[in-house]
Amino acid sequence: MSSNNDIYATRRWMYQRVDRGTNVPSKEFCQGLKIFMRLAKNQLLYLETGKLFCPCIKCENGKPLLPEETVSRH
Q1: For the chain, does the N or the C end have fewer beta carbons within 10 angstroms?
Q2: Extended strands (E) in 1-74
Q3: Would you call 44 helix, strand, or coil by DSSP?
Q4: What 3-state DSSP class applies to 21?
């Protein structure tokens, strides 16, 4: 079983979203997002519908299913 520290380490890219020096999305965030989207698009739900649940704070990984472009922007 993984600990909370393991979960944080895996999701660290999510919490380091903005580069504080330039105030733009960090390189780590952009790379993590690419990996997340690649994994999400291999799931059966996406393969069948072409849409995803959005994990952002606003959508709370809930419905409705959204297109890939919308999830990436959120």
Answers
A1: N
A2: 18-19, 24-25, 51-52, 66-67
A3: helix
A4: coil
CA–CA separation, 6 and 57 (whole Å) = 21
Instruction: Return the closest-CA partner of residue 25 out of 13, 35, 36, 37.
Output: 13
3-31 pLDDT, tens digit per residue, is: 566 767 778 888 888 988 999 999 999 99
**Residue 70 near residue 37, CB atoms below 8 Å:** no
Q: In angstroms, what CA-CA distances link 35 with 3, 11, 72?
A: 22, 11, 11
CA–CA separation, 16 and 27 (whole Å): 9
Q: How far apart are CA 59 and CA 6, in angstroms?
A: 24
- Reported pTM: 0.71
Residue 20 identity: R
